[in-house]
Each structure stands twice: as C-alpha cells, then as structure tokens.
C-alpha cells in the first residue's frame, strides 16, 4: 500500500509481519532557501576554495601580528598607536570569521547563524574604528587639540562598538530567518534584503571616514608649537592612507561574499591575490605614520622611500632692531636734492653756478644783505661748501648776500 506521503511494504512469514515506512521530507523551504544561482562548485573545487581561504585568513593574521611586534620594538606608543592596535585586533577577528569559520561551519545551520552575525559585526566594527581614526587625525591636522584629539580619548574605543552593534542588530531581527540557511557559506544571501543590511551601513561609515580624512588631507598645515609632534606626524600621514586601507579590506570582504554566493572559483583566486597585497599594505600604513619608525627606516634600502621624512620647514625669521639697521645700511634711502648737491665739491667755483644779474653794481651793502636775510628761517644754515668756495674764489664773483643767506633746498 502506498500513498503520497509514505510507502509501506508487508511480508507474512510464519504469522510474523514486518512493516517498513519511508516518509518524504516536509517543509523543505523552511530549512533550505531556494537559490537563484544554478552553478555550484564541485567537491574538488570546494576543497581548493577552503584551502585558499584558510591561507588568506592566516596571511592577514600574520601581517597584523608582525605590525604589532614592529611597533612594540620601535616603542611607538600613545593613543594614535592604540587606535591602530584596536584596528588590527578587529581585522584579525574579521579574518577569522570571513576566511575560516565562514567555510568550516557552512553546513551547520545553528553555528553558521552566529558566524554570520559576527562576520557582519566585525566588519562594522572595523569600519567604525576607521571613522574614529579619521576624527582623531583630522582634529590634530586642523590644530583643534594639542594631544589626543578634540574628543575624550575613551570615545575612540567605545564609540566604534556602539556604532557597530546598531546595524548588526537592525539587520538580524528583520532578516533572521535567512541567517545560516545558505549551506554554502555563513554570510549574507544576495537575493534578499539581508544583503543591503550587510553592505549599506558599512559603506556609509567608510564613506564618512574617507570624507573626513580627505578634508584633513587637503587642509592647510595648522600645526601649533604646543601640539604633540608624534601625534601630528602620525595624523598627517594617517589621513593620506586611511581611504586606501579601509576600502581595501571592505573590497576583500565583499568579494568573498559574492564569490561564495555565486560559487565562482576565479573570484576566490582574485580574493587570494588581493589578500597577498593587503598584508604588506596594512603593515606599511600602520608603521610609516610613526616618527620613531621613520627615523630608523628612512635610510638606504629598497623600501626606504616609503619611510622617507619630509625636510624640516625653515623657521620663521623675526626681525629685530639690529636687523632693521642692517637693512638700512644695505638699502639706503634715496638722497635728497640737497645731499646730491653737496656731493659735488670738485665743481669749479663759479663754473656751474648760474650768475644772476646784479641789481646794483659792486658788492651789496650790509643793510641789503640783512634785509634779504630777514625772511629766512634761522634754522636754515648756509651751506659751508658754497661759502668756502666763495671765499677762495679769486675773481670775487657773486654777491655776499647770495652766499651768506642762500636758502637751503628742501
């Protein structure tokens, strides 16, 4: 006897009846989401993908650890370094979720659900730390703070967590029925709204962080003497590299999501090449902004140019009284006509002087000379050179009044 739901086989042997019933699976759509993509990786390809992703996760973790150790050896400290350390820890946890756990527990629905939640959370957390870094660096570049930025330093560590929890919970509760149901990966499913809950918040946070960093990058240098030189040096370089490294890790995260969802082997290979470049890029961006490291590695070498330091700016030249006097000596003022007239003592007496016709013949009397000099300012003295020339002139040319009471040239 058989029907739509079960099939039964009966056998009678010595009054003994054995019945076997096989039930068809029910509610398949509740356990397995209907996929819109037909292609699925083969078993061999799936193994290759797992090994590639394990390698990518380990590669990112190793470079993060190398970055931490180098900064410890170079004694880079301060909140500018602690924010980067916070960032590196978040990237390590993100690499564990998206590259390792994402493909280890993809067939276990309950565990995969939690992996998807943490995968989303750590990506939001990493983006939020980049935003906090942009706020910190921007405030130092604009000279708004002498040290540790314009907001309390504790917010650089608490604010990213709060900002990451919001999008994670806001996506999970409306779309929780899709978490852990892909059976190919533990990430977002691209055919439902779960994808936009994963992608849009991260994209918005990174866009704001990049905008803040670029505005600080193109701003004028407003560093004040009272500011911490280590943090200012870090801030100027941090705003230049923040967009590159933040968009890079976001691109890797998105590429893994779509490669697993579409089951494309070449996309996983592309992710591997991107990860190979990301490790050294993270190392450079988190070390070349620290003054201690640049002072040690700015010498000769194939990578010395990455840590080359800008030449120091010339100090402002303040002028004092001595400098002003030196300038007067080097750049004398234009001479007055009177001084120009005095500079020609070799002039022949009577040769260059225009002789006005005498009103009376002979030398003028003292009365006329006195009357002619009554209207002159007593402070206007006779030019000594003219007077000496008149006395030594044997021709006795010129009137005494014209020499003794000659008005000075203004």
UniProtKB/TrEMBL annotation:
Keywords: Membrane, Transmembrane, Transmembrane helix. Residues 1-24, 316-410 are annotated as: Disordered. This is G_PROTEIN_RECEP_F2_4 domain-containing protein. The keyword Acyltransferase does not apply. Residues 329-338, 374-384 have a biased composition (Basic and acidic residues). Residues 385-400 have a biased composition (Polar residues). The keyword Cell wall biogenesis/degradation does not apply. It comes from Caenorhabditis elegans. The chain crosses the membrane at residues 51-73, 85-105, 117-141, 153-174, 194-220, 241-259, 265-285. Residues 1-22 have a biased composition (Low complexity).
């Amino acid at each position: 006897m058989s029907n739509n739901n079960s099939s039964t086989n009966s056998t009678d042997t010595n009054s003994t009846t054995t019945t076997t019933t096989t039930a068809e699976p029910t509610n398949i759509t509740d356990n397995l989401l209907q996929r819109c993509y037909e292609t699925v990786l083969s078993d061999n390809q799936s193994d290759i993908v797992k090994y590639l992703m394990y390698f990518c996760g380990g590669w990112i973790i190793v470079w993060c650890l190398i970055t931490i150790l180098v900064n410890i050896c170079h004694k880079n400290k301060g909140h500018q370094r602690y924010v980067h350390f916070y960032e590196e820890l978040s990237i390590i946890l993100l690499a564990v979720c998206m590259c390792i756990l994402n493909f280890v527990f993809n067939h276990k629905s309950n565990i995969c659900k939690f992996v998807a939640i943490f995968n989303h959370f750590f990506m939001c957390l990493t983006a939020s730390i980049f935003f906090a870094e942009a706020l910190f660096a921007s405030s130092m570049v604009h000279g708004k703070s002498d040290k540790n930025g314009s907001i309390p330093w504790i917010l650089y560590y608490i604010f990213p967590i709060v900002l990451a929890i919001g999008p994670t919970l806001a996506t999970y509760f409306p779309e929780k029925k899709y978490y852990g149901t892909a059976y190919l990966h533990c990430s977002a499913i691209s055919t439902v709204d779960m994808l936009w809950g994963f992608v849009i918040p991260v994209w918005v946070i990174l866009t704001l962080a990049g905008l803040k960093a670029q505005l600080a990058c193109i701003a004028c240098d407003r560093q004040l003497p009272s500011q911490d030189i280590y943090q200012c040096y870090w801030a100027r370089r941090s705003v230049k590299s923040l967009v590159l490294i933040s968009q890079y890790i976001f691109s890797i995260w998105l590429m893994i999501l779509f490669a697993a969802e579409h089951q494309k082997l070449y996309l996983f290979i592309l992710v591997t090449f991107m990860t190979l470049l990301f490790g050294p890029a993270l190392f450079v961006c988190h070390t070349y902004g620290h003054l201690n490291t640049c002072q040690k590695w700015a010498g000769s070498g194939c990578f010395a140019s990455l840590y080359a330091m800008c030449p120091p700016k010339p100090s402002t030249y303040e002028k004092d009284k001595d400098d002003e006097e030196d300038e007067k000596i080097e750049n004398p003022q234009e001479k007055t006509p009177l001084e120009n007239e005095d500079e020609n003592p070799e002039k022949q007496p009577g040769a260059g002087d225009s002789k006005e016709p005498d009103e009376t013949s002979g030398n003028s009397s003292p009365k006329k000379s006195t009357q002619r000099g009554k209207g002159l300012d007593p402070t206007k003295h006779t030019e000594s050179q003219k007077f000496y020339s008149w006395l030594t002139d044997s021709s006795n040319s010129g009137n005494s009044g014209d020499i003794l009471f000659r008005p000075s040239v203004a």
